[in-house]
Design brief:
seven-stranded antiparallel β-sheet; 42% helix; disordered N terminus
Length: 495
């Protein structure tokens, strides 16, 4: 009996979704089919109505205990046969060999073209001795940050829901299990390509690349760029998407924390929210991952690490591209695209609608000042936005100790804005510079309450972060300076 037949006979639940073969059609060289491992009676922590609508779930579907069982991994979804994929990768710059979905199971691809994956659904053949589980604290962080990044307009995987359970999970201490249902057009990573290239499985490498091109990059076929080589064209397209994504990270002060090649999306999506952080005080060398003892993934290293990872992807694709010059040309697109994208994002933060050669100096002078004083990144930009709309300059000046240096910069900035409609510039800045980001202490407060089965802070943060540039009257505390204890929060790769 096939696994699908077993699933149906075991009481599969019809979610009302039409399923397509998608990635699973590539076959057993790419994945292993297996069911999720059940947990103790589940409960809903939170769900995103927007993502539910995106995948085609009926309103209120998650209120049904049988549907909740599907997203807990306790019962299969009708029409699916869940699977874990195999990949390899470089971790902290070192080749780690075979990896894979060690705690994630993909249910399948819906008719909307989106894959639904359960993270924390139990062990797989790629768990490397792990239990395949995720805990409540890390699941809340991933759920909230996925939706927060979407609210900021940054390419990301999405999160449908968090399901909790009292099933114990042992980490540094005993915690409880949780499962995040996450959603994306594809969960293919750079590491998928590295896996087949490293093993010399060139036919499988080509099948994977063709799958990604045909489904996500059809424009890479039939072009004249890069000698008409579709695999080089894909490498260039991925490089450009990655450049834009990382530029957005830098502009909003987001630190990913663990940019291994197996954590890099082939679609240029932010994926795998582990030890991430939004900057409080601006420190270019900030390391958000307690496990990153060498600072490889510090905030100011992210642009270079993205290129390093793309180079690894390029090496993996070389058997298909078969021309070093063309491959390097595809990769070099990142070197031009990232600075342009970053400068564009920083101009937008300053309300500048045209480009001038002096802008780079204006931005650099400001960043050096903010770094010297560890000025709060998010609050500074928000106050500057209000200042440009016509508000008094006192709130933004009060954030800087070296007033002489800041006033000199502010004069240069005002001269740059001369002739522009400052009201319109300020309004544009208020739509660009968020009032709310998922600071570590906000996530920690939500986690502490959730451990007591109070999920109100999770709900509140999801709603605020869905529209982070809105004022949200009555929620000023969520946009304030972090408390002193926030600096003692340590986030590591443990989850």
């Amino acid at each position: 009996m096939s696994y699908r037949a077993e699933a149906l006979s075991a009481g599969a639940i019809d979610l009302g979704l039409a399923w397509q073969p998608g990635f699973a059609a590539l076959g057993t060289d790419f994945l292993t089919r297996l069911p999720a491992r059940p947990v103790a009676p589940p409960y809903l922590v939170d769900a995103s109505p927007a993502v539910a609508a995106l995948v085609g779930l009926a309103p209120g579907a998650l209120d049904d205990p049988a549907v909740l069982d599907v997203f807990a991994g306790n019962r299969p979804a009708a029409g699916t046969a869940s699977y874990a994929t195999v990949y390899s990768g470089h971790q902290f710059g070192v080749w780690a060999g075979q990896l894979g979905d060690g705690r994630a199971l993909t249910l399948g691809q819906t008719a909307s073209g989106l894959e639904i994956q359960l993270k924390g659904a139990g062990p797989t053949p790629y768990s490397r001795g792990g239990d395949g589980r995720a805990v409540l604290r890390s699941s809340i962080r991933e759920f909230l940050c996925s939706e927060a990044m979407h609210g900021l307009g940054i390419p990301t995987t999405r999160a449908l829901c968090i399901v909790g359970s009292d099933t114990p999970v042992r980490r540094e201490t005993t915690e409880t299990a949780a499962i995040v249902a996450r959603v994306a057009p594809s969960f293919v990573r750079f590491g998928h390509f590295e896996h087949f290239a490293a093993r010399g499985q060139i036919d499988d490498l080509r099948r994977l690349a063709d799958h990604v091109i045909d489904r996500h990059y059809p424009e890479c076929r039939g072009g004249v760029d890069l000698g008409g080589n579709p695999y080089a064209a894909m490498l260039k397209a991925v490089s450009l998407r990655t450049a834009e994504m990382v530029a957005q990270w830098q502009a909003v002060g987001f630190c990913h924390g663990v940019m291994n090649t197996d954590n890099m999306s082939i679609l240029g999506l932010t994926i795998d929210y582990g030890p991430f952080q939004f900057l409080d005080g601006f420190d270019p060398a900030h390391i958000c991952n307690h496990s990153d003892t060498q600072g490889r993934y510090a905030y100011n290293q992210q642009p270079n690490i993205a290129y390093w990872n793309l180079f690894c992807l390029g090496q993996a694709l070389m058997p298909l591209i078969d021309a070093e010059k063309i491959a390097l040309e595809a990769l070099e697109s990142y070197r031009g695209a990232f600075p342009a994208a970053y400068l564009g994002r920083m101009r937008a933060k300053l309300g500048l609608t045209d480009a001038r050669e002096t802008d780079a100096d204006l931005i650099d002078r400001l960043l050096k000042l903010l770094a010297a004083e560890r000025t709060d990144w998010t609050i500074f930009w928000r106050r500057l936005s209000h200042h440009v709309t016509g508000a008094t300059d006192a709130p933004v000046q009060d954030m800087v100790i070296d007033r002489v240096r800041f006033d000199a910069w502010l004069l240069q900035y005002s001269e740059r804005l001369a002739g522009a409609d400052r009201g319109l510039a300020g309004e544009s800045m208020l739509k660009t510079n968020p009032r709310f980001v998922l600071r570590n202490h906000l996530g920690e407060q939500a986690i502490r309450q959730a451990k007591l089965k109070d999920f109100s802070e999770v709900h509140t943060l999801r709603r605020l972060l869905a529209a982070p540039c809105d004022e949200h009257p009555g929620f000023d505390a969520y946009a304030g300076f972090p408390p002193d204890w926030a600096s003692s929060i340590e986030i590591s790769c443990s989850s």
